[in-house]
Write a structure and sequence with these properties.
- The chain folds into four domains: 5-126, Sandwich (Immunoglobulin-like), CATH 2.60.40; 131-236, Carboxypeptidase-like, regulatory domain (Immunoglobulin-like); 248-336, Immunoglobulins (Immunoglobulin-like, Sandwich); 351-433, Immunoglobulin-like (Sandwich), CATH 2.60.40.
- Helix content is 0%, strand content 53%.
- It contains no helices and 33 strands.
- The strands form seven sheets. Strands 22-21-24-25-31-28-27 form a seven-stranded mixed β-sheet, with no helix packed on it. Strands 1, 2, 3, 4, 5 and 8 form a six-stranded antiparallel β-sheet that branches. Strands 13, 14, 16, 17 and 18 form a five-stranded antiparallel β-sheet that branches.
- Residues 1-43 and 339-347 have low confidence and may be disordered.
C-alpha cells in the first residue's frame, strides 16, 4: 500500500477581471506537490480555488458571491468568511456588516473507492469603496415641494450599465426638500429617472423625466461614478402641455417580450406616451399590472403612441382619430426583452420590414418595421397595373414602429406595399392580398 506524504506547498495568486464594470474578480489557486513511497511526484487529486465577486446588481453593500473553482473529485466544501461566519455550500453568498479586510478560507475534501484528498486555500478580501448619487428635482421654477410642501411624492429609479445592457437596480421614494439620493453604489455608469407617484397633486402635470431633462431613455445623459460622490445631479421634470378636450378614446396594452439573459424593468415604471405628428409629447399614462392602458378626451388628429421601458426598445404605433373613427382600440405596444439584435446588418441607415398582417387583409393593414434613422417614410399601395390606392408619409423614429393603414375601402385583389425613406434609393416592398 502506498503512503502519500505532503512534501511542499506553493501558492499561486491570479487576479482575473470581469466584464462587469467596477467589479473585482479575485481568483486564488493552491498547488500541492505530493510524494509517493516510490519517490515519484505528481499533483494531488484536489486543488482548492475560488473567486470572490462583489454584487453590483443590488443595493446590498459589502455583499459578495463566492464561486468554487476547485478541481478534483470533491464532495465537501467549508468556507470561513473571516468575520465569524461559515458555510458548507459549494457556491455561497455572504454580506459583511462593515468594510475592511477579511481572510477568506476554503477547505475542500473528496473521497471515492480508492482515493481521498483534501486541500485548503486562503486569501485576503478587501471590500470595495462605495459612492453616493443624488440631486434636486425641479417641478417648474422650484424644487419639488419647495418652498411649500404640497404633498407630491417623487419616485427615483436607478439603472446601471452592465455589459452594455441597462439593468434596473432600485427605486427610492422621496418627498421633503425635493432631493433624491442613492447610496452604496459601485463605480460605473448609471441612469436616473424621476416621476411622481399616483395620488400626488401634480401627478398629471409632469412627465417621468431622465437626467438630462428628456422623457426618453434613448436620449438620457449617463451619470459616471469613478472616484467621488455625486450630489448635484439635478433633474427638471418636463411639464405636460395643455391639450384641448375631445371625444377620442385610445385603448391598448403593453406586451413584454422576455429574453433569457436579463430581466425586464418593472411594468409600474413603464410609461405610455402620446405624441403629435411632430413627435411632441402630449400626454402620458402608465399601464395597469396586466399591461392595459387608456386615454380619453382626445381631440381628433393623427398621433404617435410609444412605450418607454428603460433600456428596452419598443414599437411605435401611428393612428388617426376622426369623426368616423373616434375610438381606436386593440393597440399593442411591444417592449422587446433585449437590445435591437434581431435586425440584419446593413440597416443602420435604412428601414427593415419586420411584419405585415393580416394577409389577406379585411379592414386594417398592420405594418411593423425597424428604422435605423429618424426619417420621413413614404408609404404607397399599388395594384399589379401600377394604380395607386394609398399614399402617406409617416415620420418614424429610430427603433421599432407600428403603422396602421385603413384598407377597408381597397377593392379585392393583389397589392404591393412600398416603403421608402427620403435618403434611400431602394424601396422596401411586400405583397399582400385583399
Amino acid at each position: 500500500m502506498k503512503t502519500i506524504l505532503i512534501f511542499s506547498t506553493a501558492f499561486l495568486l491570479l487576479l482575473l477581471s470581469l466584464n462587469l464594470p467596477a467589479q473585482n474578480h479575485l481568483n486564488v489557486t493552491t498547488k500541492i506537490a505530493i510524494r509517493e513511497s516510490a519517490g515519484s511526484f505528481s499533483d494531488t487529486i484536489c486543488k482548492a480555488a475560488f473567486s470572490a465577486i462583489p454584487d453590483s446588481l443590488s443595493s446590498f453593500p459589502f455583499f459578495y458571491h463566492f464561486k468554487d473553482l476547485s478541481s478534483g473529485n470533491i464532495n465537501s466544501w467549508y468556507w470561513d468568511f473571516g468575520d465569524g461566519s461559515f458555510s458548507k455550500e459549494q457556491q455561497p453568498s455572504h454580506q459583511y456588516n462593515d468594510p475592511g479586510t477579511y481572510k477568506v478560507c476554503l477547505t475542500v475534501a473528496g473521497q471515492n473507492d480508492s482515493n481521498s484528498c483534501s486541500d485548503q486555500i486562503c486569501m485576503d478580501l478587501v471590500t470595495l469603496n462605495y459612492y453616493s448619487l443624488g440631486g434636486l428635482v425641479y417641478a417648474g421654477e422650484y424644487p419639488l415641494n419647495n418652498p411649500v410642501i404640497v404633498g407630491d411624492t417623487g419616485i427615483a429609479s436607478l439603472y446601471r450599465i452592465v455589459n452594455q445592457q441597462i439593468i434596473f437596480v432600485e427605486d427610492h421614494y422621496f418627498q421633503e426638500y425635493g432631493y433624491y439620493w442613492f447610496g452604496y453604489l459601485f463605480p460605473g455608469e448609471y441612469i436616473v429617472k424621476i416621476g411622481l407617484s399616483k395620488g400626488s397633486p401634480h401627478y398629471n402635470d409632469y412627465f417621468t423625466t431622465y437626467f438630462g431633462d428628456d422623457i426618453s431613455w434613448t436620449k438620457t445623459d449617463l451619470l459616471s461614478i469613478s472616484t467621488s460622490n455625486i450630489y448635484a445631479a439635478e433633474i427638471h421634470l418636463k411639464p405636460v402641455l395643455p391639450l384641448l378636450a375631445g371625444p377620442g378614446i385610445i385603448r391598448g396594452s403593453v406586451n413584454f417580450e422576455q429574453d433569457n439573459a436579463y430581466s425586464m424593468p418593472p411594468i409600474s415604471q413603464t410609461t405610455v406616451i402620446l405624441s403629435d405628428q411632430n413627435h411632441t409629447p402630449l400626454k402620458f399614462t402608465r399601464p395597469n399590472p396586466s399591461g392595459y392602458f387608456e386615454f380619453t378626451g382626445i381631440p381628433f388628429d393623427t398621433y404617435f403612441l410609444s412605450a418607454d421601458a428603460t433600456g428596452k426598445p419598443s414599437t411605435t404605433v401611428t393612428f388617426t382619430l376622426s369623426e368616423s373613427s373616434p375610438l381606436v382600440e386593440g393597440i399593442n405596444l411591444t417592449v422587446f426583452g433585449s437590445n435591437v439584435n434581431m435586425i440584419p446588418e446593413g440597416y443602420d441607415n435604412g428601414i427593415f420590414l419586420t411584419q405585415i398582417y393580416p394577409n389577406p387583409v379585411k379592414d386594417d393593414l398592420h405594418i411593423k418595421l425597424y428604422s435605423g434613422i429618424s426619417s420621413p417614410v413614404d408609404i404607397k399601395i399599388i395594384d399589379v397595373t401600377g394604380r395607386n390606392y394609398y399614399s402617406l408619409t409617416e415620420n418614424v423614429e429610430t427603433g421599432f414602429s407600428h403603422i396602421l393603414i385603413p384598407a377597408a375601402s381597397i377593392p379585392p385583389g393583389v397589392y404591393l406595399l412600398i416603403l421608402q425613406t427620403r435618403d434611400s434609393y431602394l424601396p422596401v416592398t411586400a405583397k399582400f392580398i385583399k
